[in-house]
Amino acid sequence: MLKQSIVLRTAVAGFLLMLLTGCALGKRHSLPYDAWTLSFFAPHYMEVWIETADAVDINDYLYRHAGSGIPAMGYPRAFSKGIPTEFKGNPKGWRKDVGGKGKRVLGADLPRLVYVRWQSMAEPQTYEAYIEIPESARAIMLKGERAYCGADGKWITDYRKLLVVGLAPGGIAKVWVAGPCLHAIEVTRVQGTINPEGPYGGHSGGKHRPLTEESKAYIDKFGIPYGSW
Q1: pLDDT given for residue 35 in this prediction
Q2: Torsion region of 204: left, alpha or beta (phi above 0 gives left; psi -120 to 50 gives alpha)
Q3: Which residues of 144-165 are buried (b: 16+ CB within 10 A; e: fewer)?
Q4: Dihedrals phi, psi of 179, to nearest 5 degrees
Q5: 62 - beta bridge partners?
Q6: 3-state helix/strand/coil string of the chain
Q7: Which residues does 132 contact at the CB level (< 8 Å), separation at least 6?
Q8: Shortest CA distance to 126 belongs to which of 71, 180, 181, 195?
């Protein structure tokens, strides 16, 4: 009987925990869409490797490794090899067609903070930045707007559910919110700091990932346009 009672109490406690967790999840997720996306890009030839990107939502839930790897970048093109006869990309300033590569942060409410640690291979240097997302940006993310989507030729109610982060040499991180069919709106700019541990948390002997031939050739010829971001 004692054993059965213990088993019963454990089952009831587990069931109550499931209910409470479900209520908490229901309350903390107040978005008018399934999830928002955290994505990254870098200026042409200014190659970046994201070691980790973590997100914290407005309920202080932490989402580790919400981003990593190679961000979106126009030049060099994917699979390009060698040094071109003409450099078609221009890394000065930010592109007008803001867009990045990333993934949806499933289960999260609106973002409050993003931490990103990345290798700026163009320099090379390892940076980190704590990006506080302003309340005004979250208000924009909740506002639906009528938009025409050229992809399917329809008018829809779209949301700026894309949090796009541009990473540039010098430790610059600039943030926009955008929608699949809505133009991007700049919301904040952060000056990152040098990570004292260096690349890979100090586990690579100070060695950064190498640049591609094309990016290295561009930087050797034209330099890095500091101050343009």
Answers
A1: 97
A2: alpha
A3: eeebeeeeeeeeeebbbbbbbb
A4: -125, 160
A5: 56
A6: CHHHHHHHHHHHHHHHHHHHHHHHHHHHCCCCCCCEEEEEECCCCCCEEEEEEEEEECCCCEEEEEEEECCECCCCCCCCCCCCCCCCCCCCCCCCCCCCEEEEECCCCCEEEEEEEEEECCCCEEEEEEEECCHHHHHHHHCCEEEEECCCCEEEEECCCEEEEEEECCCEEEEEEEECCEEEEEEEEEECEECCCCHHHHCCCCCCCCCCHHHHHHHHHHCCCCCCC
A7: 112, 113, 188, 190
A8: 195
pLDDT of residue 187: 98
pLDDT at 81: 82
Total residues found in the chain within this entry: 229
| Structure confidence by residue, pLDDT tens digits, 79-98 | 888 899 999 999 999 988 88
Residue 123: its pLDDT value, please? 98
Distance spanning both ends of the chain, measured CA to CA:
71
How many C-beta atoms lie closer than 10 Å to residue 114's C-beta?
Answer: 25
Task: Write out pLDDT tens, residues 213-225.
Answer: 999 999 999 999 9
